[in-house]
Predict the 3D structure of the following.
Amino acid sequence: MRNILACLVVLSVVIAGAHLTGIIAPTAVIEQNPRIRANVHVLIERDGKIILSESSHNLLMDIGAEYVEDGLTNSTFINVEGLPTYISLSSNTTAVAATDTQILEEITAGGLERATGTITDNANGNWSVAKEFTATATHVSVQKVGLNWKAGNTDNCLLAQNTFLSTTLGSGDKITVTWTLTVT
């Protein structure tokens, strides 16, 4: 992801330089309306059998949009803030809102505490962050997932979040969360 952000910054500088030097005529307009889309897939297994498999689009937080902007316009930002690779879970029932800055009542023990996911470059502005958790305790009504750029139960680092069907997990149950993000 760091490479993707660096490439976008370099591309912006090249286009701006080409425009200023006249290589690109001032009348040339490049308009694409870029967007970041994200989908989250939650898979829950008990005794080797799938008990939940759910995919949905997420909600990009206001601070998540600011994070992306800062990453594209500030060359040292990512080195200071970190990459959005940390996945968090919660049993909180409050609806998600773009103004949220962290997942409410984040689970901090029992195998479901915030953890680093693995980044996979799927090519052409598409990447995934995935993590498999194994519950070591009973967790009632787990139903919310977040993608963060800082470790630990930290505020002001929530890129995106979403809800899924409320599920109680017992010790040994597995939950795999996969965020897939696309820049179009």
